[in-house]
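Please, structure for the following, as tokens.
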Amino acid sequence: MPLRPILKYPDPTLKRVSAPVRNMDGELHQLLEDMVETMYHAPGIGLAAPQVGVPQRAIVVDVGKDQNGPGLLKLVNPQIVERDGSIVFEEGCLSVIGYTAEVRRASKVLIRAWTPDEKEIELEAEGLFAVVLQHEIDHLDGKLFLDRISSLKRDLYRRRLKKWMREGFPEEVTATSSTL
């Protein structure tokens, strides 16, 4: 299972809305397996297909059982059907280099999705598990967590990123990775 390159902000592919998966075939299964390996290697706890350049509605997440998560999930065409409450969580992203920020999201969600073996499922999630699912589903809608922070913070990050691209990334930025 090959590792796939993870696209980095400001790649325009990350801003596109993904198409629903129509065929649960071998190609989809291979994509999901590659995404799992890529996510673990990064290391991260979630990855969406658009982050590896595939504009389809598929995500993988692994919020460990010690974090009230079910472990590894591969979800196809996930959608949020209910939201409740509010939580502020420090988020990072495998596609956003060297930056984390507090993001407000629903504290509880109900997700409807399909498994790769074509079973429709519903998942109730709260806390970190709910945050990760919302974060990854945002990717399917062409949104990054940067779109959920203030324009001032977003602009400061853009300026810092341009400087790093011009002058080179500091070692502490390249040595650390974000988790979502």
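The chain has a mean pLDDT of 92. The longest strand covers residues 71-84.
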